Amino acid sequence: MDGLVAFDLTSKDLSPKPALAQSWEVSEDGLTWTFYLRKDVVWSDDAPFTSQHVLDAFHRILNPETAALAVDNLFVIQNAVEFNSGKIKNFKHVGVSKLDDYKIQFRLKAPVAFFPLIMAHHTTFPIRLDIIKKYGDRWIEPENIVTLGPYRLIHWHHDSRLIFKRNKTYWGVKPKVPYLIFYIVDRSSTQLRMFERGKIDFIKDLPSSEIARLSQTKEYNRSAALRLYYYAFKTNKKPFDNVYLRQALAYAIDRHEVVKVLGSGQESLYSWIPHGLTGHSDTIGPRFDVVKARELFKSSGYDSQKDPIKITLGFNSDEKHKRVAENIQSQLKRNLGLKVELLSEEWKTFLSGLRGTSAYSIFRLGWVADYPDPHTFMAIMKSHAPNNRTGWRNSRYDKLVDRGVAETDFKKRIQIYNQAQKILLQDEAPVIPLFTEVNQVLVSQRIQGFHPNRLDLYHFHLMEIRK
Amino acid sequence: MRVAVKILSYSSVVLGLAMILWDLSTMYVPRILNLSFGFCLLGSLITGIYQQGLALFVFKRFASSVVTLFVIATATFLMLRLLPGGPFDDEKALAPHIKKNIEAKYGLHLPLHQQYYNHMSGLLTGNLGYSYKYEGREVSDIIKDAFPVSFKLGFYALMLSFLIGVPLGLLAAARHGTSVDSVAMIIAISGISLPSFLMAPILIYIFSFGWPLDILAPSVHQRLLDWNVLLPAALWHSPAHYILPVLTLGVRPSAFIARLTRSSVLDVIQSDFVRTARAKGLSEKVVLYQHVLRNSLIPVLTYSGPLVAGILSGSFVVEIIFAIPGIAKYFVQGVFNRDYPLIMALTLLFSVMLILANLIVDILYKVIDPRIEVS
To answer: What pTM was computed for the model?
Structure first.
């Protein structure tokens, strides 16, 4: 499937490129975006693609009855939240309107400089409401589905495999490979065996025990991912209501050591915005500094000798999380003399603990970018963001993040994010970024046109099989 | 009546064998064969039960099963709600109003007794609801797709375990105290002690990758590749895909059955009626097959009840390792995902299997040994 906009996977910054929309423009106040659609696009049932299908998509996904989970990115659009929460009943008041069959306009609540990136996310892709109405929940089955991407689904054995066939009526670059088969295989070691047996050409999620060996092979491809791994404090509870203590811990953790312990390609991270995004800086955030950490610990008023603090570190049961936690435990003992207890919980139990009933005062979490813009990371720590599970509130940080969204000047935007990250990581330290994950894939030597990228997105229609 | 039972049961055996052969060659069984087999099997069961005078017994068991299932459904419902964390908790937290939307969609905003009522009335009308995790898929569809796969895998593994286990046990008992006995029991013990997560990769490396030929004799290995005789390492697309998972799943129960058969046969061999049979001058073969074997199958049968239910509803380890699209992973992931409707349905499915298997075992007791009183 295609959206109005696509990510250019060959470009370094994954910039937006035209897809179903051939061009777009924004009004001077940055609030109104108009997208001009291609006129040569047809669906796989030969119906022409029009702006009505985009409008329908927004109507359906924002409809409270659809109960879509991943709609929050669309809340930048005027009245989108109100419609989604049922406060407004009439979709006409939402800031999406069809100007004519090939022109669609979005009105935003506040300027968003990277709005086209949101239009590349699959939540915004056009739909065929007539098909959905006709077939109900079965509209996604191969015998019913109507799409407009380079491939269309022709067979779907749930839990086993999907087969896609090249779409002859595709508007863009014609795919070279006639069929794609995706196998659903849960275990990474089974995937690897199938790859090594020559049965499949492409796998992601390599078994961590095999990475050292696989990284020596020609098939191995790796790219830094926009996936942040961090530790956070419960800042409204003792002992981490104490800002000096939080800072002391932030300075006391050597990220390189964590990454070395994991040994599967992660990149250590001190700033909140990961490598490769606007606003990332190697000089922001507390660097590893034992002397400074001990000083800060002293100013916190705690004393590890006389009155040992009880610190419990929570994470969800998983081999990797356990290894990170054990390393942090030993670093904090070594560098600050702290005794940290580890608490491993089943995933959903852990998540319900984050809502307030937990026994731990530090916990691990991660964040995956929805689009390649720093805002996706900055927004989660805003005071009332649902993903800010630390209890930390800061109105100055909120204001800076809001300013950052609207700023179109590249340099100014970096300055704003530098200030915001300084508050988040140095002055207040409710969170400690540890590292970014890596995307690791094995691609058979016979595949050409493969581009490893930070979003872990792969455009199979641009690949070729070498003869 | 007697003739009807005979005709129906023989034809269901024949049809069953035809189904197996058909499946083993094409991985597909024609619908007409399926239906006629079902008809014959059901017919022979009903007539057989009637003829053995077990109708009242079976009816009573059905009635008590309904109560059991009701209790199980209620207990599962309550226990699921006691688990911390809800179905829509994830790394990415939901805005409160989005959570409200989703709870309204699945009726989770209602008071608990209302949810319970909705759920139970849904069960009665055969509506199992929608999965929370696999969006837009009805639980009944998931079971319809995945259960036959697990059933088939389990069925072949069971066949294998009886076909290996019983003869092996019998052989060991007949040659009691000799080296044959020791070898058979060493095989059995190793079969029991080798867990499937270890067994599976070993089998895969040997039969799918051709180890150790790939290192020791590359030319032979290349020939194996050319002939395409190495087995697939995973998936479930053709009868060749059955072999390794069925082997992995079947080895443990067959080892168990071998040991059970052996000890039970040794027990029976020392009983008075066997001594009488021998004293009559019957040949050792006749004594063993006609007098001993039948009577020593009772413990094996007892073990089979739960074994059948367990193995037919899928083995998590084997299905995951071989990427088999069966039901087992839903048992595990359903709980981790807090997918309430899915877990409820699967628990009931498993209970029904267990109840049915035990019922059939009880009936077979009576067939094997008419002295046994079933009530």
So the answer is: 0.89
